[in-house]
Design brief:
With 501 residues, the protein is mostly helical. The protein has one domain: Amino acid/polyamine transporter I (Up-down Bundle), CATH 1.20.1740. It has 18 helices and 2 strands. Strands 1-2 form a two-stranded antiparallel ribbon. Strand 1 and strand 2 form a beta hairpin. Helix 1 packs across helix 12 and helix 3 crosses helix 14. The longest helix is centred in the first third of the chain and has 42 residues. The chain starts with 19 loop residues before the first helix and ends in a 21-residue tail after the last helix. 54% of the residues are buried.
Amino acid sequence: MKGSAPSAAPRAELRRVVTGFGFFALAFGSMIGVGWVTAVGSWLQQAGPLGAALAFLIGGALMLCIGLCYAEATPMLPVSGGEVAYSYAAFGTGHAFVIGWCLAFGYIAISGFEAISVGKVLGFLLPDLDQTALYEVGGSPVSFSHLGLAGIFTVAITVLQYRGVAGTERAQRWMVVAFSIICLVFIVVGIGTGQLENARPFLGSSISTVGWSGGLLVVLVTVPFWFVGFDTIPQAAEEAAGSVKPRRLAVLIVASIAAATAFYALIVATVALVGPWTSIVDSDLPAATAFTAAFGSPLLARLVLVAALLGLFTSWNGFFLAGSRVLFALGRGNIISPWFGETHPRFGTPHRAVVVTGALTLFAPLMGRDALLPFVNAGSFLIAIAFMGVALSVCRLRRSAPGLARPFKMAGGDTFPILAAVGAGALLAAMIIPGSPAALAWPQEIAILGVTGLLATLFWFRARRLRTTIIESQRAFLILEQYAPASKPGLFQSRPIPYQS
């Protein structure tokens, strides 16, 4: 029986039109992104081909443990906002706010990074674009053409998402299909014609200042950043079409992580094999440079750039959607201003959250690429916190809400949730322990985390009056809908919560 909606706080509804392949396209497209085009050189330099591939395989296994937690939680609570709902059901409003704050910051930071990257990638494809710098931020030039391109595409994505998730999903499907075909071409060509000798030194210790094991760790701790995106599925779970059964969402989460792991490992192998990787690691676009040097083929190099551009848009599209849904879920639950929790009467989208996400993304390119990188790194740290939060929420809900239906449940008891929490904790530790080769940079990145924490504290106390405008049973219905418990959720209860069926 569904909970009854409180008359003072009607629950805004989203359109339910996303298909199964649409969910996979959102997740996989968000994970592959554009960063591999520029970052593969640093992966090779830090850990060598074998070390970098191992880092992604190990990281993929860790992400799979975390993904299994999502696979259990998503069909259990298929509502918008994903992690916000899980944390709320398990621990209450405060935890939901912290997780939502971390996610919103991380998603919007990545969206801003994509807005900056579009000018750079198009600049390589269209070298005649005006590159005259208007000003510099921290030594990073900001040109009119880059600002213009970032603005045009940010507005385009905002309009697309404002007008409905059906159009967003359709665009994502076609872009992911095109991306996959192009990548298959240059991966097959690269591995089929490459030579093993080109991949030496396999572990990169000859040029890495921290040794191959330290280099592997440096790459490994960035994995949450490269793999984040499978969590777009729980963000949009409430928008699933009727033909998409809850258990299928779990399968799609696992499948998208496996596909991304294979993609990243193959990219490392391809670039290392087509030419001596030590000669291309310092170039702006190592993947494109490798194919140009190996085959003298500008066409293959341009195919890499076209794939990068498609990956940029699929990633941007997915993270934009995820960020707006987190803001929407927090607003609909009156954890932040309910203004964010409204849906468009015609399009059925969280239009206000979409517009705010677009405005914040539009601001990012003004800061310059190098100035934004610390925000992305800090955002990765905050997303890792959310990963840990989901693992702990799954453990908690197994005890506090054993009667809640679980279309997919991990085998092995709490083994995978504990591994996921420990793994996320280890990644967090590697980013904050002084002297770690993966430590966040001082003062910029540590300062960003400090300011983010301070703003979250101020925002939490300033919004206290908003949270008291409804009683907790109303909030539970707004966040969890028919999955709302008969009693108050979270708050560390010592006995199971009697969930309604």
